[in-house]
Specification:
mainly alpha; 5 helices; 184 residues
Length: 184
């Protein structure tokens, strides 16, 4: 292994840890919003969705998702696409997957296990479901939603070269470029 490839691996690992930490910080704030709203509308005296845990969880998760979308530039600075509509669509799909995981956990707890207490709801939705959903979202965001690459080369943002399988300067997918040495 050469020193440059070791530095590259170290730099990628540090970048991944930083991304995961920022993802976790935004996620922690979204978690507080999600859990707080769920318990407010489901289990408080003013709970207008009392007895409807899946509806309460869907409402709370949707609001937490909007919060996460508004904070995406901090976590994925330099990796967001210029095609915001496509990015937003993929972001919504990722979050619907995470919400579906939490919804399944709530349904399973209520209808299979027969556990319907506020504690059971919170464990199903916000320990098991949120944990699995968060892992799903992180992987989906990292590999599918926020795949833009920071500029390489002169330091000028306009000088970034498209990476094979990556995004072009306008945010659209680009064809992989084959080096001249390996072209037929």
């Amino acid at each position: 292994m050469t020193r440059s490839s070791g530095n590259s691996l170290t730099q990628r690992l540090v970048a991944l840890i930083k991304e995961f930490t920022q993802f976790g910080m935004v996620g922690a704030m979204a978690y507080v919003i999600d859990v707080g709203l769920f318990n407010l509308v489901q289990h408080s005296p003013a709970g207008f969705l009392s007895g409807h845990p899946n509806s309460a969880q869907l409402l709370a998760s949707s609001i937490a998702t909007v919060f996460s979308w508004l904070n995406r530039h901090w976590t994925y600075r330099g990796r967001t696409r210029k095609n915001v509509a496509r990015e937003a669509t993929l972001f919504v799909i990722a979050n619907l997957g995470g919400i579906a995981i939490s919804q399944f956990c709530l349904l399973f707890t209520h209808h299979v296990l027969g556990l319907t207490s506020p504690l059971a709801d919170n464990i199903a939705a916000y320990v098991v479901g949120f944990g699995l959903g968060t892992a799903f979202r992180f992987i989906f965001y990292h590999y599918i939603v926020f795949t833009g690459h920071k500029g390489h080369g002169t330091g000028d943002p306009g000088s970034a070269r498209p990476v094979a399988g990556g995004e072009g300067a306008d945010g659209d997918d680009v064809e992989p470029q084959v080096p001249a040495a390996v072209r037929p």
